[in-house]
């Protein structure tokens, strides 16, 4: 659901506020049987246990299930190399894996991984040259540690892709980090809005077709892009989102839509896009704030 359509647009955890109000789940995780979620931390926050249960997720793996957990030196967090090696092992048991990394989560410490050859070069004048009172502050040495940590992430992901290439079966994997670095808070104007953007890629280990561009997308369209590019069977709800994505829509607000990275108000939208945008808003309202008369098959029956 688009954050802009919430009763309180500033809400950051829509599952807590809305998910349990809906009688139907539209999670991509349950489009493939034998699914699991791997998170090398805890599920006690943000109502995760109840939400994943309602989604129909088969198994949750937390740090309590990782007796051999290895942490990245200087961070106190599970290393991405450990996590990706664990993912490689679990692929043989689960056809869909949702993985949330913790390696690069704040807080950060200065001087982490100073022994590696990579040295980040950061634009001056944005981050503080002096230590901050908070470990979550904008101290430039925190940022340098963060970017050195990303080198380790890159290496781990590179090995994971090589491991997936060797699998004889199709791999269904969603892998992401647990939100943006804390030292970017309040830096939106200086970084021209890029603090709210994150890189992503979609990869298939078999039957890859033409290369798909990594479009600038609202998070609500990442799954539709995955479904469209991967030619998955989908539900009517996700098909509606796929149609929006294929029309070039990258985000929806209460008064218009983003086409690419340009905002277009409702009155200037093409008629075909305007109808789809209206359908999306009506479905969202009916599902979360009304009686959900649309019914479960619209959200979870695949065609």
From TrEMBL:
Domain Sulfatase N-terminal: 10-227
Pfam assignment, any one: Sulfatase
Domain of life: Bacteria
Protein name: Sulfatase-like hydrolase/transferase
Organism for this UniProt entry: Salinicoccus siamensis
Lineage, uppermost ranks: Bacteria, Bacillati, Bacillota, Bacilli, Bacillales
């Amino acid at each position: 659901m688009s954050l802009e359509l919430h009763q309180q647009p500033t809400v950051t955890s829509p599952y807590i506020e809305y998910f349990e109000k809906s009688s139907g789940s539209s999670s991509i995780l349950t489009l493939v049987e034998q699914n699991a979620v791997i998170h090398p931390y805890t599920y006690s926050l943000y109502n995760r246990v109840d939400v994943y249960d309602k989604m129909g997720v088969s198994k949750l793996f937390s740090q309590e299930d990782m007796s051999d957990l290895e942490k990245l030196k200087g961070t106190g967090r599970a290393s991405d190399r450990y996590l990706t090696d664990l993912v490689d092992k679990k692929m043989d048991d689960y056809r869909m894996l949702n993985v949330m990394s913790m390696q690069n989560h704040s807080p950060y410490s200065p001087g982490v991984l100073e022994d590696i050859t990579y040295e980040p070069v950061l634009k001056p004048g944005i981050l503080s040259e002096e230590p901050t009172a908070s470990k979550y502050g904008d101290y430039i040495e925190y940022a340098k540690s963060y970017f050195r940590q990303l080198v380790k992430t890159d290496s781990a992901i590179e090995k994971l892709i090589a491991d997936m290439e060797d699998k004889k079966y199709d791999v269904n994997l969603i892998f992401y980090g647990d939100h943006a670095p804390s030292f970017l808070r309040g830096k939106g104007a200086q970084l021209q809005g890029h603090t709210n953007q994150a890189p992503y890629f979609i990869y298939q280990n078999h039957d890859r077709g033409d290369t798909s561009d990594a479009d600038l997308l609202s998070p609500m369209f990442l799954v539709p892009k995955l479904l469209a590019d991967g030619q998955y069977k989908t539900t009517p709800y996700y098909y509606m989102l796929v149609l929006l994505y294929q029309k070039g829509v990258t985000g929806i607000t209460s008064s218009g839509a983003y086409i690419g990275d340009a905002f277009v108000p409702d009155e200037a939208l093409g008629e075909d896009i305007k109808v789809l945008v209206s359908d999306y808003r009506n479905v969202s309202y009916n599902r979360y704030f009304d009686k959900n008369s649309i019914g479960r098959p619209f959200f979870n029956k695949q065609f």
